[in-house]
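Weekly structure sync, notes
Attendees: PL (lead), two postdocs, one rotation student
Agenda item 3: pending single-chain targets
PL asked that the sequence for the first pending target be pasted directly into the notes so everyone works from the same version. It is reproduced below exactly as submitted, 412 residues in total.
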Amino acid sequence: MNSHSSASSTPTHANDASHALTWRDASWLCAIIVIGINLRPLLTSISPLMTTIRDATGLSFYGASLLTSVPVVAMGIGAFGAGALTRSIGETRGVALGLLAIALACGARWAAASGAALLATAALAGVGVAAIQALLPVVMKQRFPARVPLAMGVFSASIMGGGGLGARLSPWVSGAMGSWHAGLAVWAVPALAALLYWLGLNRRPSRAAAAQAALRHAVAFPLWRKRRPWTLGLYFGIVNGGYTSLVAWLPAFYQQRGMSVADSGSLLASMTVFQAASALLLPVAAAPFRDRRPWLILGLSAQLAGFLGLIFWPGVAPSMWIGVAGAGLGGTFSLTLVTAMDHSADHRVAGRLVAFTQGVGFVVAAIAPVFAGVLRGVSGSFITAWGMLLVGVAGMILVSFLFSPRSYREWE
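Predicted structure, written out during the meeting:
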């Protein structure tokens, strides 16, 4: 297998990288954007309305934390099934089914009157997101082999941007419609729009479709027996534990300090603006360099600074701390996936590694907001939760040194 990874630490398709994007390329990038926008509002639309939802459903802090954790767990578990989904129906239909699941889950929230019903929709949406996040990177590596950092940056930025829209628009829709159900259910509309766009883009077979069919017959080897996939998965999970915790509890933290529901939602939305920008720019900045470690450490250091600000100076320029933390979260999210894809020039192996990384990572990331909610319930403050995240980020800075380009040739 070493032949796969021997070329991964050097640029591939160098000549292609100098070619201008075609209209066909642009249409695929647009598809990546409209799909990515739908992958986080199911989480971020809950957070600003959490107090209202808890009052209406009687959910405890622990139960409310599950509204964020359950879909993230589903993202992780669902990612492990991406290989079987690819072999059975292929990436195109798998992504379409993912979008359909998100649309159905969000639409069902219009009538969800209990915490159990909301948790069921969260699980369904999480499975849909898992399918998309595991399958779409394989398509990106096939279609943009010389521009993987750009494609992954665009995808990650659209994910973060969608999260910001969820945090900002859901309280507004809820207020305008006089129902928190409407603020959650409205996200079925862009999911259906993305589904129609995706089906239209793939209405005719293409060379990429033939390549995807070949993937269904690829020889597999057990990733779970290798150390590097587990390291990448735990790294991705602990890094993203900061995101899931802030999405779940940042508005509640500032509401506890006297901020309104709308303003706390806007604060979360502003965080995602910095996430989106960094998710695009950090991989692009790192693209010319074989060694991703300095850029990963840069992103983690930004997270570290943001959490320090939330712990010690939360009332002093909160937008600054949230922006710095958001920039670190967005950049490391996308660059970690790029680093995983760097481990093999073969898109089949890289796709399986990215799916495994997300499978382990999202399960780990789902634990963080639950612990944060428990710590908040026990201590009466979120400061201890931010401290937990701070320690995790510091540990991941040390782990980053393991990801040398030389190690790409050795893991298989």
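Discussion points:
- The chain has a mean pLDDT of 85.
- The chain is about 80% helix and 0% strand.
Action: rotation student to compare against the earlier draft before next sync.
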